[in-house]
Here is the input.
Amino acid sequence: MPIIRTQPLTAADFAAYGDVLQATGDPDRVINAGFCGRWHDRARLDFGVDGRAGISIFDAQPRSLPYVCDLLERHPEGSQAFLPMHHNDWLVIVAPDAGGRPGQPHAFLAGPGQGINLFRGTWHGVLTPLHSPGLFAVVDRIGPTPNLEEYRLDPPLTVEA
Amino acid sequence: MPIIRTQPLTAADFAAYGDVLQATGDPDRVINAGFCGRWHDRARLDFGVDGRAGISIFDAQPRSLPYVCDLLERHPEGSQAFLPMHHNDWLVIVAPDAGGRPGQPHAFLAGPGQGINLFRGTWHGVLTPLHSPGLFAVVDRIGPTPNLEEYRLDPPLTVEA
Here is the structure.
């Protein structure tokens, strides 16, 4: 069974897959009489021609490492942002596309305060918090047509710390 | 100086101001082979005719109670959702409109796991976390025209626990 190790989630390393949403570096604006920084419009949202943005809440069961991943999925009709409603680290598995199926997967360890926005069509694992509560706000495409492709990994992939 | 007390944040009590975004009650869908509940499309987003959705990250300085509030604001061109990137309580101050200015304010204590989506045009206080980190993901309107009205409270309002 193939094994990969986690790597820290950085904007540079994640650039092919999506946006890292975090309050690092100088804010784009300082608002509320200096009490609040705003890192402005940091996600490249894309809901296709017939979709719109929606906010949903996900509550996922925490997992632990090593984690066995046997399924990747992608959403051909829209981007999908995961915003942790907690301040713990969590696991992000993604893969490039290789002719309509996932290429070599990568596992990123998102730190406290890091959300992501997956570009439309990015292969990714299911939501994998590593601590309780596994609560996330998800901003994704609400639309009239199917928006899910799945690819079963055979053999499965093991993600180690 | 007028004084108000906080009340728990419930969907019923907040109904005039916006949506409460939380994972309570049964999920609308169970996904990921049973590992994740999805409370689907829970925010009534509204970005007007010339706006679009954006995700920004806010980092606000924590406040404490009693809190003195001397300013309310509203966004005439779009809804604004606040999604805590932490699992602590935080303070939400809102007021109904009363002929173009704020009416009687209300203070809600949002609990861990509770986000909100303010309807377009809802009078509200600035972002007031009560603990560190004061990190929030904000889904609001990105657009070409001004989208802020402010109203100074004179005398200020004191919010007590």
Observations:
- The domain at 3-160 of chain B is CATH 2.60.120.480 (Jelly Rolls).
- Chain B touches chain A at residues 21-23, 27, 31-33, 35-43, 45, 52-61, 81, 83-87, 113, 115, 117, 126-127, 133-135, 137-139, 142 (CB under 8 Å).
- The helical segments of chain B are 11-14.
- Chain B has one domain: 3-160.
